[in-house]
Amino acid sequence: MRLTFPHMGNMYIPLKAMLQYLGADVVLPPPTTKKTLTLGVKHASEFACMPLKLNLGNFIEAHERGADTVVMAGGCGPCRFGYYAQIEHAILREIGCDMELIVLEPPEKHISEFIAKVRKIAGTRSWWQVIQAIRFGYQKARAVDLVEIASFKARPRELVPGATDRAYDRALALIDGAASPDELKYIVEEALQIMAGVAQEHSRPVLRIALIGEIYTLLDPFSNHSLERRLGLLGVEVDRSIYLSEWVNDHLFMGLIKGMRSKKEACAAAAPYLRHFVGGHGQETVGSAVNYARAGYDGLIQVFPFTCMPEIVAKSILPGVSDDLDIPVLMLIMDEQSGEAGLMTRLEAFVDLLARRKETGEVVNR
Amino acid sequence: MRIGIPRALLYYYYYPMWKTFFEELGAEVVLSSPSTKGILAQGLKYAVDEVCLPVKMSFGHVLDLAGKVDYVFLPRMVSVEHRKYICPKFLGLPDMIRCLDGVPPLIDVNVNLYRKDRDLYTAVKKAGSYLTANQIKIWVAYRRSVAALQKYNRLLQLGLIPEEALAVLEDRVKNEPLPYPSDLNVAVIGHPYNIYDPYISMNLVGRLRDMGATVFTSEQVPEKIVSKYAERLPKRLFWTLGQRMIGAAFHYLDRVDISGMVHVAAFGCGPDSMTGDMIERQAHALQAPFLSLTLDEHTGEAGILTRIEAFLDMVRWRQAEASGL
Question: Given an 8 Å threshold on Cβ–Cβ distance, is B88 in contact with A78?
């Protein structure tokens, strides 16, 4: 059994570590490229959202590398992600890439369904080892996120152009290479040291923009055209409403690890505008917008794939938040048609607008 | 007190229930005008570009009620059956509408039966509390409204479209309409608010009937058959309307007396992108004639008409070929 899974930004680092800790044979799909997207677009239905198309492309490419089993997460609606695995499986079978499918999702009838799936991956290993593997995966996810956050801070202030990107790649490679939890402990330190080693001009004035929206397009640099990097190079410090480790803590550990930002705060903040969950991360998007505005950010960028239902609801509501809390919002919708030049023009214009606003605002307040 | 009900979205499933309930409690129920270009234009003006056509239309209908009513009844339809949702946009609809200017106050009770069935009455009580404090009156009105809904559903199962069924319920016609003369049967699968709104669907049902086809929709298939056919899916579907469409489509594709299928989807509809795909795959596998219509505010009537005509021609040729003519 050779396992594979879809890409979502840096998710491959923790997930691979977790599966390999359990002794699984992991085939990593090649990094998502234009070819991946083309493969996905060719075989998926036209109006399926972009993450489905990219997943499908990942699976086809992993199949070419010899993978025969797909591990995926599932869900129970109302966002269509809950039905991804089944649709993708049907498409794969139709085009002759028959792969076995293991969907990890809340069981429909009995907990035994879930246990059987875990057993399929873990083989004869004990539950203690499964828990250890999940812990190891989580620790890697956290390490990756810390490095990413450090890069967000360093990039707009770097003295040598490109230094942050080089440090970031090295730090990720180090974390990816950590083979055991013990090793990971000092590797995290080392990775953060590397990030801290980027020469920065700390007094440089920077704008602060928060990215909010749908999880896949936020976390996956291919699907959002490396939005964070581009903004960083325009002199903007970014933050994201979703990090992988926070998501895992919220949804898989039920908030077990204290002291992290949780979706509860976001949902509470959304209350006057959106009073009910709408699936996906719609309510979190609205809530994070409110929280970021209160935290004094200069602007917000909402990112989501074309036809994403929860984010469309959030998009309808965000103008109200923007008016009430006086914070500009830019909406970016990603699909296979989005072009880089158009994106750059919009980002530059938005950043110029925010910079001008900040300048005049400071003058007026003085 | 006047309560407005927009003639959009789940109006096509629940209007008799809502109307009976509010009238029993002594309110006057005002329905928005039938969909027109003007109503859609209002919706387009205020809705974000990305929402689907029926939701844009519903914005227009709510705005049509502005100034005519004291309240607009716009329940938050989260879930109407156990472990199934409607669609994320329905979950956020009252919040999206509340952002508009000049909208009358909303009665936006949460209808959420995702966990257990008895939660429905909490919503009913809350809606009733806008009109009366008398719990017994609310209970009686609720029972009558359920009875009205059952009667309506029976009429739909007989093959009447909502407009005709409502005419029968409101005694606007003497007899139930006679079957149209036809030489073939066509299944029309789609969300009720798309196929039954004559403006959105460009009167698809009426046109098919005029061209000599009897129309079968998913509302005519009893619930038991729907769930039996939907069990063919690898995983239980979590959308009520999607489940109905899939179950009915699989059922019709199995029936020899149905000669073709028209699938109607709104541009950018999330559930349709998944269920429509599965239906299309099944139709392909069975080599059944299948027409897929995607509608939005730019859809032209002439284009749709041409495609329906071509589709029916193709179905008729196939039939002639099969009978050896």
Answer: yes
Please give the CATH topology (third level) of the domain spanning A206-366. Answer: Rossmann fold (3.40.50)
Interface test with B, best of A316, A332, A333, A334 (most B CBs within 10 A): A316
Are A76 and B238 in contact (CB < 8 Å)? yes
User: pTM, whole model, 2 decimals?
Assistant: 0.92
The domain tally of chain B equals 2
3-class SS of residue B17? helix
Q: CA nearest B46 in A: which residue? A: A316
Nearest CA in chain B to A44: B277
Encode chain A (366 residues) as per-residue pLDDT tens digits. 899 999 999 999 999 999 999 999 999 999 999 999 999 999 998 888 899 999 999 999 999 999 999 999 888 878 889 889 999 999 999 899 889 999 988 777 778 888 888 888 888 889 999 999 999 999 999 999 999 999 999 999 999 999 999 999 999 999 999 999 999 999 999 999 999 999 999 999 899 999 999 999 999 999 999 999 999 999 999 999 999 999 888 888 877 888 788 888 889 999 889 988 898 899 999 999 999 999 999 999 999 999 999 999 999 999 999 999 999 999 999 988 888 899 999 999 999 999 999 988 766 665
Chain A nearest CA to B93, separation (Å): 8
- Give the single-character DSSP code of A158: B
Question: CA nearest B108 in A: which residue?
Answer: A275
Q: Quick one: B83 and B196 in the same domain? A: no
The answer to whether A3 touches A24, Cβ cutoff 8 Å, is yes
**Domain assignment of residue B88, given as a range:** 2-168
Domain spanning A2-125, CATH architecture: 3-Layer(aba) Sandwich (3.40)
Query: Which of B168, B194, B224 is the endpoint of a domain?
Result: B168
N- to C-terminal Cα distance for chain A?
Answer: 67
What are the tokens at A52?
């489905």
Cβ neighbour number for residue B123 with a 10 Å cutoff: 18
**Chain B residues in contact with chain A using a Cβ-Cβ cutoff of 8 Å:** 47-48, 50-51, 76, 78, 83-89, 91-92, 95-96, 99, 110, 233-239, 265, 267-274, 276-278, 280-281, 294
User: Which has the closest alpha carbon to B250: B215, B220, B219, B286?
Assistant: B286
> What amino acid is encoded at B80 in this protein?
V
Residue extents of the structural domains in chain A: 2-125, 138-203, 206-366
Return the CATH number at B285.
Answer: 3.40.50.11900
Residues of B in contact with A74 (CB under 8 A): 235
Q: Residue B174: inside a domain, yes or no?
A: no
Distance (Å) of CA B249 to CA A244, A278, A338, B190, B254: 39, 27, 34, 10, 9
User: What is the ipTM score, two decimals?
Assistant: 0.91
CATH number for the domain that contains residue B32: 3.40.50.11890
